[in-house]
Amino acid sequence: MRLLLIEDDQQLQANLVEQLTKEKYSIDVASDGEDGLFQAVECAYDAAIIDVGLPKKDGISVIKAIREQKIGFPIIVLTARDHWQDKVNGLEAGADDYLTKPFHPEELAARLNALIRRAAGKASPVIENGPLRLNTATQQVYMESNLISLSGSEYKLLEYLMHHIDEVMSKTKLTEHIYDQDFDLDSNVIEVFIRRLRKKLDPNNSFQLIETLRGQGYRLRSYET
Questions:
Q1: What's the domain range around 49?
Q2: Neighbours of 117 (CB within 10 A)
Q3: What residue stretches are annotated with the Response regulatory domain (predicted)?
Q4: What does the pLDDT look like over 72-119, one tens digit per residue?
Q5: Can you name the residues that pair with 213 across neighbouring β-strands?
Q6: Which one of 2, 4, 48, 137 has the fewest CB atoms closer than 10 angstroms to its CB?
Q7: Secondary structure in 3-state letters for the chain
């Protein structure tokens, strides 16, 4: 999952990038509201974390502008502990949740996980597709009762596909949502990871779990179809 972090506190920004990278998120960062808004409009994200007190353009204005562009990814707004009005203003502007500083990065990761699940229509941290189960909280994947060992990149790809079962995903869209903005979009790495996932999840290709649609991309099939 690809996140946008708009935070001008460089130490907090670095700490959050480190923690969220461990959680297998890909993170783009901005240090002021104008740059953050530009990235939010121009790039594809699964969620955003936006501080209220930003230079050039404050966080509330950024959130309002994002929503005016009909961009619907979940947003968590960061506020100072004693500024309760910022929480109200953030939610009214279109944020989905808030955290007051200081906070534990683990709580932020848990709230992000929940918001992204709800945005995809998933109430539980466990996403199931027939015998395939993915736990977004523990980041474990099971095929029936067998634990499947995946690399970090393989997991991120599978998690995104599991959030969009039966949807056709182009190579470009997968790359945009899984990797940060510096990644080479012309790389064949998506094809490599798709092949690895097929071998690990369905080595006999008995169901053709991940389909290739020529000229369109890939689709994780529902076991109900």
A1: 2-119
A2: 19
A3: 2-116
A4: 999 999 998 777 788 899 999 999 999 999 888 889 999 999 999 888
A5: 217
A6: 137
A7: CEEEEECCCHHHHHHHHHHHHHCCCEEEEECCHHHHHHHHHHCCCCEEEEECCCCCCCHHHHHHHHHHCCCCCCEEEEEECCCHHHHHHHHHHCCCEEEEECCCHHHHHHHHHHHHHHHCCCCCCEEEECCEEEECCCCEEEECCEEECCCHHHHHHHHHHHCCCCCEECHHHHHHHHCCCCCCCCCCHHHHHHHHHHHHHCCCCCCCCEEEECCCEEEECCCCC
Alpha carbon 41 to chain centroid distance? 16
Pair 6, 101 in one domain: yes
Pair (140, 163) in one structural domain: yes
Which CATH number does the domain housing residue 136 bear? 1.10.10.10
81: domain CATH number is: 3.40.50.2300
| 4 pLDDT tier (thresholds 50, 70, 90) | very high
Shared domain check, 114 and 24 = yes
